[in-house]
Amino acid sequence: MSVSFTVEGRVARVTLDRPDRMNAVDAETEAELEAIWTEIERRDDISCVVLTGSGEKAFCAGADLKGGSGSSGVDYWTVGRENGFGGLAFRRSLDVPVIARVNGYALGGGFEMVLGCDIVIAVETARFGLPEARVGRMPLDGGMVLLQRKIPFNRAMAVMLTGRQFSAQEMASYGIVNEVVSAGELDAAVDRWVSEIVACAPLSLRAIKQTVNRTAHLSPAEAQALRTPALIKALKSEDAMEGVAAFRGKRAPVWQGK
């Protein structure tokens, strides 16, 4: 297994476990990731996912060009990855919040996976980039279509057209990274964000993310009018009543996820 997957206390932890390859993704790893995201989508006992890479050097260095991803550019492109790199970059069926714990290099597909996450916490030494053009390729699995939608056009183009690496602080100034911390503070920072997310009603979290995912292409009026399944379920839930009762009673809510 090249990916570790655990669930505890409504928190799933997905860890790319190929430190000797800078957690680069080969065909086997890609298949494992797709299976994990699909399982998370089926479960109702998960309120948050933390995605990271093992070791201290890399989050993910992208596609493993020595591990089965070194075919021609056309061959790689025609395979078709409807959910983007790692099954995550532009996945729209995953209604659970995902935190990227960026512990090092996030390059190529690794950066594309970061773009598919909802919150990004990075160690101050982390480096981000889309270096594909430097090896005669392109950021096919999310970079070209996502980055320009997340940050100003000229900044997105600077990342893609130079192929250079950017610091965590630069990515924070661009709006990609939520928080930059020292290596010794990384886990505490991630745990703090996790605890704040898990404190929210599970069905509310799903409704928010599902609605955001399915309305980004709509006008504000169209988005407001859309009644996503998760939104209806959350509004009719027992937890919706519990949240109000807990607020009035000045106590912590007890979520049932129903």
Structure description:
- Pfam families: ECH_1.
- It comes from Rhizobium freirei PRF 81.
- Belongs to the enoyl-CoA hydratase/isomerase family.
- By secondary structure, the chain is an alpha/beta fold.
- The protein folds into 2 domains: 3-197, 2-enoyl-CoA Hydratase, Chain A, domain 1 (Alpha-Beta Complex), CATH 3.90.226.10; 201-249.
- It is built from 11 helices and 10 strands.
- Strand 1 and strand 2 form a beta hairpin.
- Helix 4 runs antiparallel to helix 5.
- The longest helix has 16 residues, at 27-42.
- Mean pLDDT is 91; it is low at 69-74.
Topology diagram in text:
Layout lengths: L2 E6 L2 E6 L10 H16 L5 E6 L4 E3 L12 H7 L18 E5 L2 E3 L1 H7 L3 E5 L3 E3 L13 H8 L2 H10 L3 E2 H7 L4 E3 L4 H13 L3 H14 L4 H6 L3 H7 L2 H11 L10
Parallel strand pairs: 2-3, 3-5, 4-6, 5-7, 6-8, 7-10
Antiparallel strand pairs: 1-2, 8-9
Helix pairs in contact: 3-4, 4-5, 8-10
Protein name: Carnitinyl-CoA dehydratase
Organism: Rhizobium freirei PRF 81
InterPro entries: ClpP/crotonase-like_dom_sf (IPR029045), Enoyl-CoA_hyd/isom_CS (IPR018376), Enoyl-CoA_hydra/iso (IPR001753), Enoyl-CoA_hydra_C (IPR014748)
